[in-house]
C-alpha cells in the first residue's frame, strides 16, 4: 500500500470517527438534558452597553460583597483587566467571603496554572466547566459553557455578553469600541440565577451546595416582569421558533454571528411573507475567521425577501438580542447561530416590561444609526476569495 493510499484511508477513517463521535455524543446529550426555566418573575433590571461602565460597576459590587461571590464566565483572558479581576476575587476570599469561579475549559485556555494555583491558595474555589472527555472526545470539545453569570451575596446578579479581557473595555485596537448588552438584576428573581450557577457548579466542581441557607436571602419583587431560560442541546432552536411565530408586526435581531438553522431561516422568511418587518444588526467587521462569510448566504435570502440588514460600524457589535413586536425582548448569552442553538450552554432573559423595552428600543435605534445597510449589490459583487470562504463556511457552519 503506497503512502498516498494509506493517508487517504486514515483520513477516511478519521472523518468516519468524527461523524460517529459527534452523532452519538449529541444523541446522548439530548437523552439527558432537561428543561429549567422560570415562570414570569419580577426583579429590577439595568442594562450596560459599554464595558468600562459595566466593569466599574461590577468590580465595585464585587469589592462590596459580604458573604459569597459566584462567577461563571466563558472567556477570561490573561491581561491587565483579568489580573484586576483575579486580584479582587483573591482579596475577598482572604477576607472571608466565599468565592467560587467557574470558567469554560477551552474558552479560558489562556488562564495559566500559576494563576489557578494563586487563586486556590487565596481561598477561591475554582473549577473548569466542560472538559473534553471520553467517550465522545470531538463532541465534548464542541459543547461549551457560554454562560456569563455572576451572583453577589445572593442579591445582585449579572448576565449578558461581556467576558473578561481587554477587548471588552475597548483596548483591542483591531476591534475598536466594544458594543454589547449586559444586565444587572436585583430582587427576588436573582434566586434563579443562583440556582442555575449552583447546578453548573455541582456538575463540574462536584460540590452540592444547593441547600446552603445564605445563598437564597429573602428579597422583595422588583418592577420588571421577566423570566430566565437556560438552554443546551436543541432547546434554544425551539425557543427562537416560538418567539418568531408570535411576531405580528416586527422582529429585531442583534447578534455578532448570524448563522441560523434552516427551521429558523424558514420561520423568518415566513414572518416576512406575512408582513412582519424584520431588521438584523450584525458587525461590519468580524472577530473570528469565516463567521461573517458564513452568514452571507442567509442574509442574501432575507434581503431578497424584504429584510433590512445593518452592519454596525462604530466598533465591534457583540450584543445578543431578539425583540418581538416591542412586547418581548430577549437579552442574554446566546448568539443567533447554530453553535448557540445546538451546542453551547446558554442562558437568556426574556423581558416583558414596556418601560425597559422602550429603553432597549432607543439603544437599538442608536445602534442602527451607527450602522450601514447591507445590500445585495455588495454581497453579490464578484469576489473569488470571499466565495471560497463562503463555501468553506457552509461546510463547517455548525461549528463557527
Task: Characterize the main sheet.
Answer: 16 strands, mixed
Question: Class of the largest domain, according to the CATH hierarchy?
Answer: Alpha Beta
Based on CA atoms alone, the radius of gyration comes out at: 22 Å
How far apart lie the N and C ends?
37 Å
Task: Describe the overall structure.
It is a single chain. With 400 residues, the chain is of the alpha/beta class. It has three domains: 1-31; 41-227, Endonuclease, Chain A, CATH 3.30.870.10; 231-399, Endonuclease Chain A (Endonuclease, Chain A, 2-Layer Sandwich). It is built from 13 helices and 18 strands. The protein has helices spanning 3-32, 51-63, 80-94, 113-122, 137-142, 190-205, 235-246, 262-273, 291-304, 338-343, 354-369, 376-379, 384-395; strands at 41-50, 68-73, 98-104, 125-129, 149-152, 156-160, 178-186, 224-231, 250-254, 258-259, 277-283, 308-312, 316-317, 321-324, 328-332, 336-337, 346-351, 371-373. The strands form two sheets. The chain has a 16-stranded mixed sheet that branches. A two-stranded parallel sheet has the order 10-16. A hairpin with a 3-residue loop joins strand 14 (321-324) and strand 15 (328-332). Helix 3 (80-94) runs parallel beside helix 4 and helix 7 runs parallel beside helix 8 (262-273). The chain is globular and about 60 Å long. The two termini are 37 Å apart. 43% of the residues are buried. The mean pLDDT is 95.
Characterize this entry briefly.
The chain has 13 helices and 18 strands.
Main features:
Endonuclease, Chain A, 16-stranded mixed sheet, 3 domains, 42% helix, two-stranded parallel sheet, 24% strand, 400 residues, 13 helices, alpha/beta
Amino acid at each position: 500500500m503506497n503512502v498516498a493510499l494509506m493517508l487517504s484511508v486514515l483520513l477516511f477513517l478519521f472523518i468516519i470517527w468524527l461523524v460517529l463521535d459527534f452523532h452519538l455524543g449529541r444523541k446522548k446529550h439530548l437523552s439527558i438534558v432537561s428543561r429549567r426555566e422560570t415562570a414570569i418573575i419580577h426583579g429590577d433590571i439595568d442594562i450596560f452597553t459599554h464595558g468600562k461602565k459595566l466593569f466599574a460597576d461590577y468590580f465595585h459590587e464585587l469589592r462590596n460583597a459580604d458573604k459569597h461571590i459566584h462567577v461563571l464566565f466563558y472567556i477570561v483572558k490573561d491581561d491587565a483587566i483579568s489580573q484586576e479581576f483575579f486580584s479582587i476575587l483573591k482579596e475577598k476570599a482572604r477576607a472571608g467571603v466565599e468565592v467560587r469561579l467557574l470558567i469554560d475549559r477551552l474558552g479560558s485556555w489562556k488562564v495559566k496554572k500559576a494563576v489557578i494555583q494563586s487563586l486556590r491558595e487565596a481561598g477561591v474555589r475554582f473549577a473548569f466547566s466542560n472538559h473534553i472527555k471520553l467517550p465522545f472526545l470531538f463532541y465534548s470539545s464542541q459543547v461549551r459553557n457560554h454562560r456569563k453569570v455572576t451572583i453577589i451575596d445572593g442579591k445582585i446578579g449579572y448576565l449578558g455578553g461581556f467576558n473578561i479581557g481587554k477587548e471588552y473595555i475597548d483596548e483591542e485596537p483591531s476591534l475598536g469600541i466594544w458594543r454589547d448588552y449586559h444586565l444587572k438584576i436585583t430582587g427576588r428573581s436573582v434566586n434563579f440565577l443562583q440556582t442555575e450557577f449552583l447546578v453548573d457548579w455541582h456538575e463540574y466542581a462536584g460540590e452540592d451546595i444547593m441547600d446552603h441557607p445564605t445563598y437564597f436571602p429573602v428579597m422583595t419583587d422588583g418592577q420588571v416582569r421577566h423570566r430566565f431560560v437556560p438552554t443546551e442541546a436543541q432547546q434554544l432552536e425551539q425557543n427562537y421558533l416560538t418567539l418568531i411565530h408570535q411576531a405580528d408586526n416586527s422582529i429585531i435581531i442583534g447578534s455578532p454571528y448570524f448563522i441560523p438553522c434552516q427551521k429558523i431561516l424558514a420561520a423568518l422568511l415566513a414572518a416576512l411573507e406575512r408582513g412582519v418587518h424584520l431588521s438584523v444588526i450584525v458587525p461590519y467587521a468580524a472577530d473570528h475567521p469565516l463567521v461573517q462569510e458564513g452568514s452571507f448566504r442567509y442574509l442574501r435570502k432575507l434581503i431578497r425577501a424584504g429584510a433590512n440588514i445593518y452592519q454596525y460600524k462604530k466598533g465591534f457589535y457583540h450584543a445578543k438580542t431578539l425583540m418581538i413586536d416591542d412586547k418581548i425582548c430577549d437579552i442574554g448569552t446566546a448568539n443567533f447561530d447554530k453553535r448557540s442553538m445546538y451546542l453551547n450552554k446558554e442562558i437568556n432573559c426574556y423581558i416583558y416590561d414596556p418601560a425597559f423595552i422602550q429603553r432597549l428600543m432607543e439603544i437599538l435605534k442608536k445602534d442602527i444609526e451607527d450602522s450601514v445597510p447591507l445590500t445585495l449589490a455588495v454581497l453579490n459583487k464578484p469576489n473569488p476569495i470571499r466565495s471560497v470562504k463562503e463555501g468553506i463556511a457552509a461546510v463547517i457552519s455548525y461549528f463557527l
